[in-house]
């Protein structure tokens, strides 16, 4: 039986942008899709790719005590957001991906969507000969305590929101992020676990642009996309 592929997903690559600017874009696309579904109109699927200027975000179920310094000592923007998960950091050298997807058009529910996001990150690490893994009760993708490391290290964080089976928020993958920023928080509220980056694990320079290609190839494979096309003009 031939595998059925889904429709085209449009990629919007914003480059380095403030958090609020990209949040406004994804909210605009998210609510446009929700309204379209309510009115029985066609929806459109997007992947927003970006890097952010330094910012900390705290999910709706997050705890302020997982931020270890005062707001003034963060030296970065700080926002409460309506995604799942606890506190995390976004900054230069980190690929942030916001899928704005109508999951009904992709024939999947929210649980399968999260599994697919995890699998996309896992597959994207294979070209680097790194084994990404899931850990029970610890969201995201991890490199386990091997190769002389004393603890598990998170390389990809995941926090999503969905309404009427339309998604927003998404994932952040540390490529060559300055990991010192994470010293100011308990990342994702998980004590006793570390944070890492692709560059730290490989002991060589690696750019978000390089990793982005592997991520998109993996996303297309895992989500069985017919096509992933970069937007040729600004999305209003």
Describe this structure in words.
This protein has 236 residues and is of the alpha/beta class. It is 25% helix and 29% strand. The strands form two sheets. Strands 1, 2, 6, 7, 8, 9, 10, 11 and 12 form a nine-stranded mixed sheet that branches. The termini are far apart. The relative contact order is 0.21.
Structural class: alpha/beta
- State the low-pLDDT regions, or none: 1-5
Could you tell me the CATH topology label: BirA Bifunctional Protein, domain 2
What is the top-level CATH class?
Alpha Beta
In round numbers, the mean pLDDT is 89
CATH superfamily: Bira Bifunctional Protein, Domain 2
Short characterization:
By secondary structure, the chain is of the alpha/beta class. The protein is built from 5 helices and 12 strands. It has a single domain, classed as BirA Bifunctional Protein, domain 2 (2-Layer Sandwich), CATH 3.30.930.
Reconstruct the topology from this structure.
Layout: E1 9-17, H1 19-38, E2 46-52, E3 55-58, H2 71-74, E4 77-80, E5 87-90, E6 94-100, H3 110-125, E7 133-135, E8 138-143, E9 153-163, E10 166-174, E11 194-195, H4 198-202, H5 208-222, E12 228-230
Parallel strand pairs: 1-2, 1-12, 3-4, 9-11
Antiparallel strand pairs: 2-6, 3-5, 6-10, 7-8, 8-9, 9-10
Helix pairs in contact: 3-5
